[in-house]
Design brief:
single chain, about 625 residues, alpha+beta, Phosphatase 2c, domain 1, Serine Threonine Protein Phosphatase 5, Tetratricopeptide repeat, 6-stranded antiparallel β-sheet, 5-stranded antiparallel β-sheet, about 65% helix, about 10% strand, elongated, transmembrane, PPM-type_phosphatase-like_dom, PPM-type-like_dom_sf, membrane, Serine/threonine protein phosphatase
């Protein structure tokens, strides 16, 4: 490769001088076989567009696609740069001077339009200098002023040719120049060559050993003159340390190749026409795709759907590339960039990174004014909404902290507050997330309420059990009913059924108690047999519990007294009832009946406790007496 077998080194200096903006622009590209160095000087006053940067990038993009030193190719690159400037000249006419140097590491050519200069030094002397397209240069060419005066003449800035000229591009294409080891090429804008004379350049060249030293020295010379106003200045130096050595051409071989190529062209000529026809058809299809995609992209951009606009602009750009329409390619690329900035801004909003979102929207706003499909007011509205979005996100974040701390009530308040703000400001992404959070928080609160009700019901159920043991059946029924009502409310049907049985049992015992105490007619309560069975069952249960806590023999001995003790309250309550009946016989009969029941209870308890021996039965009978 040519680059590996040669040695070119480059350095440059470019400053704004006394001005805020530097409208000069230099860039270069070195490929394996060719290199291109481009320097431009912006001549307009547009505050947003940089004409020098635009034309340099356009030329380098074209060079990258197909590196070439041919005049036709390089002039075409300049014409495309000219078209791009004219296309973007909306507020003011964009203008620029440009110098392009192309080398294959053995020879070089240059194209100039305007007054950016090329100095070619060899062996420490000036080999040649490019000519300006200025009135001063024209006067020098006519012999009316010396050539040295072109750098200081008052008409040096009066340009006759430049990029952006409505009369077209009339650039100067220099013939190829053979390079030699040690050559130095210096590219300079007017801000440099106006104040640094040729003699000073040669002096700096003599001292400098590399391009960096040369450009630094030239800058020092420029600034040492302490002009009141220093224009934008740029100097780029290219040191040709080693030139690529070409192999001698074999002319016979070259002629033979040309003849073979001509023969092949004749043979495949027919196929070429078919291929050309297909290419034309493909181009027509690509053109149709480009138009349709661009139309759709513009519609999406006007509607504010920048994600779809981005996709359609990309398709339109690709179609423009297929038909080699570079003007529309740049247009759609620029519109795609604006769409991408808007999509990026929306993405940052979803991530709650509002600083980056504002930066992205602001970049889009600056470019959107150049392209009609984009609504600048819509973008500004998005920027204005960012403060509201940030406040909404802050409330949501505070709600998250409350939620994580278990403070679901206050978390719900913050979420609702944020959701209302999101709805009012159109913060749709946050609104969706907040609706989920509100639902989740409500579920948490509902679960807590259910747990609280379960605890409340459990307490009432425990109270009912306690009142049952204290024989307060009415209180137990009320407690059970309260617990049952709560279980019904929270749909715990198993607990409802269990409490239904507990209530039935309490009512049964209450009824039996009232009947036993004479408060109910015999027909309304349980039969005596049932009552006896119920009491006996309770006594047996209590005796069984006592028997389980002690040894079998001891429990058999103590079962009857326990049953007798359990029957004592019944006797105590029976007495007032009997007194209310008003007769001593009735009281005696009642007491007798209770005694009989207790006897039966004791017997039953003894049987339930497993007291099968006669001694236990005798003891129970004795206790009953």
């Amino acid at each position: 490769m040519r680059k590996d077998n040669s040695d070119f080194s480059t350095a440059f200096v470019s400053e704004a001088g006394s001005y805020i903006d530097n409208r000069d622009y230099f860039a270069f590209m070195e490929t394996d076989d060719m290199a291109c160095y481009v320097l431009a000087d912006g001549l307009d006053s547009d505050q947003e567009m940089r004409s020098a940067e635009m034309v340099v990038k356009t030329v380098l993009e074209n060079f990258m696609e197909k590196p070439s030193m041919s005049k036709r190719r390089l002039m075409r690159d300049l014409r495309e740069a000219q078209e791009w400037l004219q296309f973007e000249s909306r507020r003011v006419r964009l203008k620029a001077s440009l110098l392009m140097v192309v080398t294959n590491y053995n020879k070089m050519v240059y194209v100039s339009c305007g007054n950016v200069r090329l100095y070619h030094f060899r062996n420490g002397r000036l080999n040649f200098r490019s000519k300006d397209h200025s009135l001063a240069q024209s006067l020098a060419d006519d012999g009316r002023i010396p050539d040295e005066a072109t750098s200081t003449h008052e008409e040096r800035g009066n340009l006759l040719e430049y990029l952006g000229n409505p009369n077209g591009v009339h650039a100067h294409y220099a013939k190829k120049t053979q390079l030699a080891d040690g050559d130095v090429m210096l590219l300079a804008t007017s801000g440099m060559w106006e104040d640094v004379e040729l003699a000073e350049m040669l002096g700096a060249l003599e001292e400098a050993k590399d391009p960096g030293m040369l450009t630094d020295t030239l800058e020092e010379v420029l600034l040492s003159k302490q002009r009141r106003t220093v224009n934008n200045y740029t100097a780029a130096a290219i040191y040709v340390n080693k030139v690529f050595q070409e192999k001698p051409k074999n002319r016979r071989k070259l002629i033979k190749r040309i003849l073979i190529a001509l023969l092949a062209f004749v043979i495949v000529g027919g196929g070429a026409w078919i291929t050309l026809a297909r290419m034309a058809a493909n181009k027509a299809a690509a053109l149709e795709t480009m138009i349709e995609s661009a139309q759709a992209a513009d519609d999406y951009a006007r509607a504010g759907d920048y994600a779809k606009a981005l996709k359609s602009y990309s398709e339109a750009k690709n179609a423009a590339v297929k038909i080699n329409d570079k003007i529309h390619k740049r247009l759609y690329t620029a519109e795609q960039k604006v769409s991408q900035l808007m999509v990026d801004g929306d993405g940052y909003v979803e991530k709650a990174d509002f600083t980056k979102a504002e930066a992205s929207y602001d970049k889009a706003r600056k470019s959107a004014g150049l392209y009609p499909p984009f609504n600048v007011k819509d973008i500004e509205h998005k920027i204005d909404q960012l403060d509201s979005y940030a406040e909404t996100a802050s409330w949501m974040k505070d709600g998250d902290l409350k939620f994580q701390g278990g403070d679901y009530t206050n978390a719900l308040k913050l979420y609702k507050k944020a959701n209302k703000a999101a709805m009012e400001s159109g913060y749709t992404s946050a609104q969706k997330e907040l609706e989920k959070k509100i639902t989740e928080t409500n579920d948490k609160l509902t679960a807590i309420q259910q747990q609280l009700k379960e605890i409340q019901a459990g307490k009432l159920q425990a109270k009912g059990d306690r009142l049952m043991k204290d024989l307060d059946y009415e209180g137990a029924i009320d407690a059970y009913s309260g617990a049952q009502e709560i279980y019904q409310e929270i749909d715990k049907l198993e607990s409802v059924l269990a409490l239904e049985r507990s209530i039935a049992k309490a009512e049964e015992k209450q009824s039996a108690e009232q009947q036993k105490n004479g408060q109910l007619p015999a027909g309304l309560g349980l039969s005596d047999g049932v009552l006896n069975d119920t009491d006996a069952g309770d006594a047996a249960s209590e005796a069984s519990s006592s028997a389980a806590a002690t040894s079998a023999t001891a429990s058999q001995a103590k079962a009857a007294p326990t049953a007798s003790a359990g029957a004592t309250p019944a006797k105590r309550e029976a007495s007032p009832t009997a007194k209310s009946g008003g007769t001593g016989d009735g009281n005696a009969a009642s007491t007798k009946a209770d005694t009989s029941k207790e006897q039966g209870t004791a017997d039953s308890a003894s049987k339930a406790a497993g007291a099968s021996n006669s001694e236990s039965q005798d003891q129970a009978a004795a206790n009953g007496k």
